[in-house]
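hey m, so remember when u said the tokens were messed up on ur end? i reran from scratch. heres the input so u can diff it against urs
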Amino acid sequence: MARTTFAEEVYLRALTGRVVGSHVLGDYEKVAVISVKNIICSATAAAAEAVFAENTGGRAAHFVVEEGGVTETVNQVIDFEPEAVLLMFGGETSFEVTKQLFRETLKALAEANTELDILVHVRIFAAGGVKEAIKDKEILRYLQNNTVTVYTVDFEKGLIVYNEVYIPNSEITELVKIAEIPVTVEHADLLNRSLRDKTVSWIDA
């Protein structure tokens, strides 16, 4: 069991969302965030949206996917006409459900064939969500034809790392580093306790 309270888990996601809003979304003017319906994902997403809007003056909108309603939600996203979509899939929702909704969301985006930058949350990426999704040839082609990025954590150096994802075929994904963002003392402490057996370095920033 993680050595954090649920409240600390929510706050940890707020800190992560702050980094995402500042360093991942900063180059855009209009961003859609799609999340599953849970508190953890919503906390990360809301923090990212708030920091993005404050720092850039850009527009952000939040969309929630649920079983049976993915296509309708993705149509709303397309009507919003964003430059990028942040896929915030993780949190306390069952991971089988989360992976299913992630695949269905990518499938709906692929069927619409809308040109977008696709930004992926670390948890769904680390759990193999992209690798599973690209077994679908339509999703594979769609992601190969659009920019796909993901933010990850470098536990040895105490960094959040922003990467571009390259998908040369249906079995391999390659990460190419775009930027490194130092983890603060507060953020690192929560990451350490939340991730149990992981260790994270930090700087006082």
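this time it looks ok to me. The first helix runs from residue 6 to 24. if urs says something different then somethings off w ur setup not the seq
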